[in-house]
Amino acid sequence: MKHINHIFFDLDHTLWDFETNSDIAFDTIFKKHNVKIDLEKFLNYYRGINQKYWKLYREEKITKEDLRVGRLKDTFEIIKFDATSSLIDNLSVDYIEYLPNNNQLFEGTHELLDYLKPNYQMHIITNGFNEVQSKKLKNSKLDHYFSQIITSENAGVKKPNPYIFNYALNKANALTSESIMIGDNWEADIMGAKNVGLDVIFCNFNKELVSESIKSVSILSEIKKYL
């Protein structure tokens, strides 16, 4: 793919191991607030509820605050834990504060970025919150790899909205024909990028069935066979 000059990466679930880091953050804040619940039971329900809320957030159906509070409230209700509004508010604030302190990356992240950096300009396109994503990048020592950090809050829309990809291309001074998007979310990253004419690589870590026409990898190191 010698025509590619710009690589746009998603961050969470693609390079940054969101689930592992999120689990650690919850363990920390539950201990801090003396929340005595079965952590694994909470997480088993929370993960699906969180995905549901993020989909609603991507679709502009709920606000950032609805996401931060609602996912906790719904999970506590399902596991029948009586959490006050004050506790939920405090947990939602602390979760955002503690989350970037844990920085497990997917295996091979630094090795892949070291391999790509001499030959490509690399950027991030993320739907994550500004205040969290910048800390994640800095604390995990990823920030120096990327020229532009495009967040949905700065763009004013979220992936898969075509505007955020065009906004990112403009910020990076990149042409569609010389750019590729790499991400784990089929709807937000892959279909969103393809709909504006970008080439894509799907981080298919769960080994889903996808069309052979889509470049797909099951581990990060496999990206080297395309770039």
UniProtKB/TrEMBL annotation:
Keywords: Hydrolase. SUPFAM superfamilies: HAD-like. Its EC number is 3.1.3.5. GO terms for molecular function: 5'-nucleotidase activity. Signal peptide: none annotated. It comes from the Bacteria. NCBIfam families: HAD-SF-IA-v1 (TIGR01549), YjjG_YfnB (TIGR02254). This is YjjG family noncanonical pyrimidine nucleotidase. It comes from Lutibacter litoralis.
